[in-house]
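Sat 14:20. Reprocessing the chain from the morning session after the first attempt stalled halfway. Input below, unchanged.
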Amino acid sequence: ESYKQIAENFVPEVESVPDTAFGIITGCVYSGFLQAYQNQQQTPSLEDMKEFNQIIKERAPLIKKSILIPSSTEVSDKQDQA
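Finished this time. Tokens:
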């Protein structure tokens, strides 16, 4: 939900709030991935990078679905306004 709110701050510059939220989420995960290596004073191998990208590709539909489906608080807020 908060990632969608961040993305909404960039409307109308961005055309798709869900796609922007997805980019923010994957960027944060990627940053954490690199930070874990940096904390160990290592560099990820090409194989590690490929595996990371494969995991994100496999999880992308779940991430997108969670962005597109309104949260329970969002639903209750809309019901309260009605």
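The chain has four helices and no strands.
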